[in-house]
């Protein structure tokens, strides 16, 4: 989930990128940021665009969707950790206050406890290097899954139905969340020494991301067919070295990225209090955030369904609907009838359909899983 690496959004209202010659991130570092995340000089963040287009209401609306998206991604990290650790250690359990907690729930709690100290750090520098590590981990994951199929005996013999209309809303929602890095694009652009290179950055980000996602999709289908689970690592046999590498690589990413994901949310909350420089208050706020995401992860431990909801309701709004609405509001010329307006209308209609149908289907699946059988 590299698209959600969001330290670049830390302290949304305080980002002050350098405009001096020779300063700022390079083209390739920004590519790494875009892969981990993928004008008016006053626009430095996505909420700034909402402010320019619709005033304070626009800023609040976009900020709310962005922070909610980041919050649920943090929840997804805990669910993912719980699923994969339970895959590796199916018989593990915890004893807390006379109660025995086993399975995925125990690992969700352990993961939350382990990452808690990392969220207390307010300075999360060297983002490009962290992002590069995330890109490298993605490459290792794809290669290890391929090795499991080609060399370690899993094979590429499964097939099954290639197209299911009933699964289309979920598939499109998941597809959308994979490209939900638009929230950080304005900040990435302003961080560059040469902003004219930013279109090339986007091209590199989207092409490499598409290759990575498509490779994993094809490998998963050929290896496990209709039996493919919400995470391909849950299908892999744990006895193989390649499978263990894939699972451990999947485990490392959320642990290193969780603090980066929740940092913008914590900063926004901290800045709303008069004692914003209080270290104790900062630790309390960030601890409450971790605890709350753990509670949600324990309550709705369904990785695929939650991810589909994020894609349909939040990523579609942030990546498709809000950009079009803000663009039409800011650029009056775009409202004139022509190819540009037609294209924007098509995008908005498609985005609205995905948002409505995808949100309904994902919530329906979540409710179905929560209700007792």
Automatic annotation (TrEMBL):
<protein>
    <recommendedName>
        <fullName>Amino acid transporter transmembrane domain-containing protein</fullName>
    </recommendedName>
</protein>
<feature type="transmembrane region" description="Helical">
    <location>
        <begin position="245"/>
        <end position="269"/>
    </location>
</feature>
<feature type="transmembrane region" description="Helical">
    <location>
        <begin position="201"/>
        <end position="225"/>
    </location>
</feature>
<dbReference type="GO" id="GO:0006865">
    <property type="term" value="P:amino acid transport"/>
</dbReference>
<feature type="transmembrane region" description="Helical">
    <location>
        <begin position="306"/>
        <end position="328"/>
    </location>
</feature>
<dbReference type="GO" id="GO:0031090">
    <property type="term" value="C:organelle membrane"/>
</dbReference>
<keyword id="KW-0472">Membrane</keyword>
<feature type="domain" description="Amino acid transporter transmembrane">
    <location>
        <begin position="39"/>
        <end position="362"/>
    </location>
</feature>
<feature type="transmembrane region" description="Helical">
    <location>
        <begin position="168"/>
        <end position="189"/>
    </location>
</feature>
<keyword id="KW-0029">Amino-acid transport</keyword>
<feature type="transmembrane region" description="Helical">
    <location>
        <begin position="340"/>
        <end position="363"/>
    </location>
</feature>
<feature type="region of interest" description="Disordered">
    <location>
        <begin position="1"/>
        <end position="22"/>
    </location>
</feature>
<feature type="transmembrane region" description="Helical">
    <location>
        <begin position="92"/>
        <end position="114"/>
    </location>
</feature>
<feature type="transmembrane region" description="Helical">
    <location>
        <begin position="126"/>
        <end position="148"/>
    </location>
</feature>
<keyword id="KW-1133">Transmembrane helix</keyword>
<feature type="transmembrane region" description="Helical">
    <location>
        <begin position="60"/>
        <end position="80"/>
    </location>
</feature>
<feature type="transmembrane region" description="Helical">
    <location>
        <begin position="281"/>
        <end position="300"/>
    </location>
</feature>
<keyword id="KW-0812">Transmembrane</keyword>
<keyword id="KW-0813">Transport</keyword>
<dbReference type="Pfam" id="PF01490">
    <property type="entry name" value="Aa_trans"/>
</dbReference>
<dbReference type="InterPro" id="IPR013057">
    <property type="entry name" value="AA_transpt_TM"/>
</dbReference>
